[in-house]
Amino acid sequence: MSKEKQLEELRRVVLECRKCKLWQYRRNVVFGEGSPYTSIMFIGEAPGEKEDLSGRPFVGSAGKLLTQLINSIGLRREDVYITNVLKCRPPENRDPEPDEIEACRPYLEKQIEIIQPEIIVTLGRYSTKFILEAAGTTPQPISRIRGTVLRLKLRFLPREVIVLPMYHPAAALYNPRVRRYLEEDFKKLRQCIEHRIALKEPVTLDKFFNTT
Ligand code: URA
Ligand code: SF4
Fold it and tell me: To test the ligand 1 pocket, which listed residue (41, 42, 51) has its Cβ within 8 A of the most ligand atoms?
């Protein structure tokens, strides 16, 4: 079955999902969008108000910044795939709760399995924790791990994948320092894409953090 078909089938299931309490508050499920054949996936946290209203990921102010950053390295949103850890908006944009992340987990895992990206960019601490846990690795604070090119074997993928954790773009809106980090990390992403540096010289978590 084609990747489009597989994603469409999964989307139909997720649109009806009531596995956690968030279904009661949503106006739309935000499944994710982009090219099924991309090698680059961006994973955020959860839909906000604009996303809940439109059913599309990253269309509010954080989304505007994310789109700018994607464009800044010569890509369009349609060239990548963008989704979130949670597919429904938490009330008042509160943080995702562990039971919600657990209930929603199979959907993101399946999306990654279908798309089989070469590079996963995690935006913020929730998606970073999700992916590090899927690699059986100890979660690291985002302030420490952001901008680090990792090569990880995720439980549900047959091959290793490049993981590049970054701050969440919402955190950059009112914080110039975080914004500079994001801009730097996108340059690193461009290097990874253009030269496949990461593919040739993988930096593993163990190598990076246990150097003494
Ligand atoms: N923040 C996210 O994490 N995801 C969105 O889709 C929008 C804002
Ligand atoms: Fe289902 Fe995920 Fe929405 Fe919860 S957040 S209702 S698990 S789709």
Answer: 51
